[in-house]
């Protein structure tokens, strides 16, 4: 005779794995999803082998509506330690510098050819000698791309405003306009979210809204520029490129990949603003095994205190401190970015992209 108890045990051993498998597949019974970092703009940066280059990519002279001659503009930026400069007069290529008595190589600077296309949404057309009468924005961007140029959407805040009853929100139609534009044009890596002393502060809302909508598949990088028209505009908002060599190819590659960060003193009260008090980001590290992102920064040569690091997700502060544990944080959506607050200014990383797995 067969032992009934033994037969029951055999059946149980057979059915148990199947039962567990079915149970795990039921809604709400699966293992919790984890956040995976799928886009790191600084993945290719060897921080031990780069130099930090200070740049302004939106600059006017007397060749359009600026008050300083091209040579004066170049000299002023050179004296302040800038090594990358684009003269972007309206609808005009102020180029090459030698025509205005300045040799970038002799100054140890990289001159980027460009201009501000101004017959539609103002846009920086860089790395190309392009002047056009085109009034259609999409058509003008296609012209820039055909010349292998790179474009930046300048001061979007000039073209939109938050609603009075929702001052911290970006209207859906505004988000749709910019997501459509960015989706159509690969060589538009991002927007100028700080312009001329932070005169359009709502553009930071727009940047976060675009990141929430488009990351991680289509990164949107953030630039800060003086939009310099006179000496009073100079040196407040800039972009930093960590480069192994100062070449046009290296800067162009960094702009497209997001391997740079933006800085501004304009985020602080006027009496506190200082370039020296603005954090300098010296390292970004990712530990995939531990599920951490870490940023190191200094202020006036000293380490930035832990309270100076603010991780932002969906426009809100997610974590304070130099290291973010991202793996199991349910508050992380599809991106995070970091703001490093110093005594006189702020540095902003580009966004890191995430997916749930």
The SS-based structural class is alpha+beta
Low-confidence stretches: 4-12, 19-24
Tell me, rounded to a whole number, the average pLDDT: 93
Give Rg in angstroms.
25 Å
Number of β-strand runs: 20
Number of domains: 2
Q: What is the chain-wise order of helices and strands?
A: HEEHEHEEEHEHEHEEHEEEEEEEEEE
**Largest beta-sheet characterization:** 11 strands, mixed
Portion in strands? 25-35%
Helix content: 10-25%
Question: How are the secondary structure elements laid out?
Answer:
Blueprint: H1 4-25, E1 35-39, E2 51-56, H2 70-79, E3 84-86, H3 104-107, E4 110-112, E5 114-117, E6 123-126, H4 137-146, E7 150-153, H5 172-184, E8 190-195, H6 203-214, E9 221-225, E10 237-243, H7 248-257, E11 261-264, E12 280-287, E13 292-299, E14 302-303, E15 309-313, E16 316-320, E17 323-325, E18 335-341, E19 346-349, E20 352-356
Parallel strand pairs: 2-3, 3-4, 7-8, 8-9
Antiparallel strand pairs: 1-20, 2-10, 5-6, 6-7, 10-11, 11-19, 12-13, 13-14, 13-17, 15-16, 15-18, 18-19, 18-20
